[in-house]
Amino acid sequence: LRVLTREDAEASPGKDVPVGTARGLVAADVAADVNALLAGGATFDPGDGARPVRPGDVAVLVERHADAELVQDALARLGVAAVRGSGTDVLQSPAADHWLTLLAAMAAPHRSGLVRAAALGPFLGFSAADLASDSDDQVTDVVAARLRDLTEIQRDRSTAELVETLVGDAAVVERVLRVQGGRRLLTDLEHVGQVLQQAARDGGLGLAGVLAWLAEHRADGGPAADRSRRLDSDADAVQIVTTFVSKGLQYPVVHVPFLFDRYVMEGDYLRLHDAEGRRALDVGAGGPSWSEHTRRAKAERAGESLRLLYVAMTRAQSRLVMHWAPTWNGKHAA
Predict the structure, then answer these.
(1) With a threshold of 0.90, does the pTM exceed it?
(2) 21: domain range?
(3) Of 36, 73, 99, 255, which residue is most buried, by most CB within 10 angstroms?
């Protein structure tokens, strides 16, 4: 447990540290502690012998994207690479655009516009210069033939075989990893492919059905649990993720720096479960049940905070580091 003192924050004795000041100082302390750990010769034994602790062994769990940015910036200042797991829908990513373009071209290989668009994607690897010099449509014909081959794989075998053919192709992997942000793109391409093969298996979908499913679900709002974007493949970098996204995962070293920072907002309505366990919304703001409902709502929020604390603390395999700061918000923290 690392404690930010009032002296550290240059705050007056007995006075709360401003929460903004505390957040910045805690983020800097996390970065310094991680940097010292990585430079200090620490080892981790995953079961087959001790090895040096690597950046990818370290996770920082946060609740707010602003806090993730604070930590990532603090680590960057010390030269420590870090990646953020956003929890956003992978079907809204550029990788899903590439899959949609490819599937559309596979479904209509006679449409030169779709074929040429697919040619520029990561799966087929042609450049704009290749297409610009294709006066006799030789490149377009080569791409169309490849699309027909992929269509046969999907039709005669399965969508899973199609996905494996594409994302398991060493040439595709090499091509993607050569560009900036390639690891992120490769992770998302694999993830979207897995989502598509699951959809095809569950719905018995052919090529047209998979294409329609992808187009529809890109427009349906928030992600399902299996569509939350994953961390970069094999990223040798500190992992910055929300506690919610970290559920079910474990890391050798875990930092939980901001659970002291819990703001409890007072409002003119309450969300709670009533005595019968039914979800309720009280908009009375002072009615006869307001006091009891306020107590119940606060207890529910505190319970959720404790559950979050439990999830965060149980992600660590070997080392858990938590922070505390004497802020006003700290009075409400788990």
Answers:
(1) no
(2) 2-85+232-262+315-332
(3) 255
